[in-house]
Amino acid sequence: MGDFSGVNYPENDADCWWTYSKCVNPNLQGLPKDVSDVPEPRTLAYGFDDGPNCSHNAFYDYLMDQGQKATMFYIGSNVMDWPLEAQRAFSDGNP
């Protein structure tokens, strides 16, 4: 229900969560360092979670108008509910 008052995360951040401690070096051996900056000039990265949904067509239109792409991270049940929006993202070149 959104109440996290009793939830405590260990101070050592054993899982390397960027949102908790800005960690970019995973503790698990063999995992590469997370991408946390973009050194190339005039570079912007978009990533979107929890889609697709009915409002995404406006976002896809914006990306197309701007000549930009984004990486989409979808929830499977949302893809089942909004398959055409997911298909459009892929067709527009937004993986």
UniProtKB/TrEMBL annotation:
Domain (NodB homology): residue spans on this chain: 42-95
Gene Ontology terms: biological process: cell wall organization; chitin catabolic process; fungal-type cell wall biogenesis; polysaccharide catabolic process
Example of a GO MF term: chitin deacetylase activity
Reaction(s) the record says it catalyses: [(1->4)-N-acetyl-beta-D-glucosaminyl](n) + n H2O = chitosan + n acetate
Entry's Gene Ontology cellular component terms: plasma membrane; side of membrane
PANTHER family reported for this sequence: CHITIN DEACETYLASE (PTHR10587:SF98), GLYCOSYL TRANSFERASE-RELATED (PTHR10587)
InterPro entries: Glyco_hydro/deAcase_b/a-brl, NODB_dom, Polysacc_deacetylase_ArnD
Membrane topology label: Lipid-anchor; GPI-anchor
Keyword terms: Carbohydrate metabolism, Cell membrane, Cell wall biogenesis/degradation, Chitin degradation, Cobalt, Glycoprotein, GPI-anchor, Lipoprotein, Membrane, Polysaccharide degradation
EC number annotated for this UniProt entry: 3.5.1.41
Key word Cell membrane present: yes
Protein name: chitin deacetylase
Cofactor requirement: Co(2+)
Subcellular location, record wording: Cell membrane
Pfam hit, one: Polysacc_deac_1
SUPFAM superfamilies per UniProt: Glycoside hydrolase/deacetylase
